C-alpha cells in the first residue's frame, strides 16, 4: 500500500518515466496518429505536474525530493518535447533555444538564491502562464493544429522572456558586485 504522503513524489517519478515513452512515440513517425498518441502522453505527464503540486500542498507533504525532482521533471519533459518539435520542423530552433536558455538560467538563479540565504523562488503568475502556454503549444503542435500551436508558442516565448526578466530583477541584489 502506498502512503498518501508518497503519492506526489510517485507522480513525479511517473512523469520522469513518461519522458522516454514520449520521446519514442515522437521518434517513430511524424504521422498525425503517432503524434496524437505522443500528445496524449505529454498531456498526461503535464497533468501529473499539476496534480503532484496540488496534492503536496493540500496534504502538506512537501519533501526535499519533491523540491528537487518536480521542477527537474518539468524541465526535462518540456525541453525534450521542444527539442523533438525542432527535429520535426514544427518549432523554430531559435525560439526553443531561448526557452531552454531561460530555463537553465532560472534554475541556476534558484540555486544561487538557496545558497545565499535559503530563499526559495516561488513561481509567479508570469511563470505559470509561461508553463501553461508552453504545454498547450506542444500539445497543439503535436496534433498538427499548427496555427493555434504557433500562436501559443510565441505567447509562451513572450512569457518565457518576461518571467525570466522578472525573476532576475527580483534577485538583482545577488549580482550587485558584478560590475564594480
Automatic annotation (TrEMBL):
It is an enzyme of class 2 (transferase). Keywords: Lipid biosynthesis, Lipid metabolism, Membrane, Phospholipid biosynthesis, Phospholipid metabolism, Transferase, Transmembrane, Transmembrane helix. The chain crosses the membrane at residues 32-51, 135-162. Its main location: membrane. Pfam families: CDP-OH_P_transf. It is found in: Membrane. Its EC number is 2.7.8.5. Pathway: Phospholipid metabolism; phosphatidylglycerol biosynthesis; phosphatidylglycerol from CDP-diacylglycerol: step 1/2. It is a multi-pass membrane protein. It catalyses: a CDP-1,2-diacyl-sn-glycerol + sn-glycerol 3-phosphate = a 1,2-diacyl-sn-glycero-3-phospho-(1'-sn-glycero-3'-phosphate) + CMP + H(+). The keyword Zinc-finger does not apply. This protein catalyzes the committed step to the synthesis of the acidic phospholipids. Belongs to the CDP-alcohol phosphatidyltransferase class-I family. This is CDP-diacylglycerol--glycerol-3-phosphate 3-phosphatidyltransferase. It comes from Streptococcus sobrinus. The gene is pgsA.
